[in-house]
Amino acid sequence: MRTLISSVFVSLDGVVEAPGGEPGYRNSGWTFKEVEFVPEAYALKGQEQEEAGAMLLGRASYEAFSAVWPDMEDFARYKTLPKYVVSTTLTEDELVDNWGETTILRSLDEVAALKETEGGPIIMHGSATLGRALSDAGLIDRYHLLVFPLLLGAGKRLFSQTDKDAQKLELVEHEVYSNGIQKNVFDVVR
């Protein structure tokens, strides 16, 4: 069984919306506008690229990342990985042709089936709506959280407000950087 990892930039109050400058959100770009850049705080991103066997994205994150990542040297490894986009509306002709193999999944059941295949970990970047649904369905195995020392108030949240049983997490790695960013890696305890 493959490990599904949710990799997220998150504010201290749980907001994950528009960390990279996506339009339409009041605090868009908060990861680089409000916090000093310290390279070592992002080392986890390079490690994820090297260890991942596939990428999983929701439609909105796919559309945002596929517009820029295929031509960025910093994300060159992702060009070679198989990508899976979970969407009920995306069509094959809307996929970009310069980012390698991409498969559209239509349901969480298809994500569960993907996890049963052979291969390395599946990394999911961004994808707030998908992430909440996968978490609620018990399909996420690990969280890679870069927690920013910011309170953003309104915005899309990392976790849903679904009334459910407690889910225990085990902290397996952590570090704090000089700019206040905290790396927290949690495994979901089953």
UniProtKB/TrEMBL annotation:
Gene3D superfamilies: Dihydrofolate Reductase, subunit A. Residues 2-182 form the Bacterial bifunctional deaminase-reductase C-terminal domain. InterPro entries: DHFR-like_dom_sf (IPR024072), RibDG_C (IPR002734), Riboflavin_Biosynth_HTPR (IPR050765). It comes from the Bacteria. It holds the Pfam family RibD_C. Transmembrane segments: none annotated. PANTHER family: 2,5-DIAMINO-6-RIBOSYLAMINO-4(3H)-PYRIMIDINONE 5'-PHOSPHATE REDUCTASE, DIHYDROFOLATE REDUCTASE FAMILY PROTEIN (AFU_ORTHOLOGUE AFUA_8G06820). This is Dihydrofolate reductase family protein. It comes from Streptomyces flavochromogenes. The lineage of its organism: Bacteria, Bacillati, Actinomycetota, Actinomycetes, Kitasatosporales.
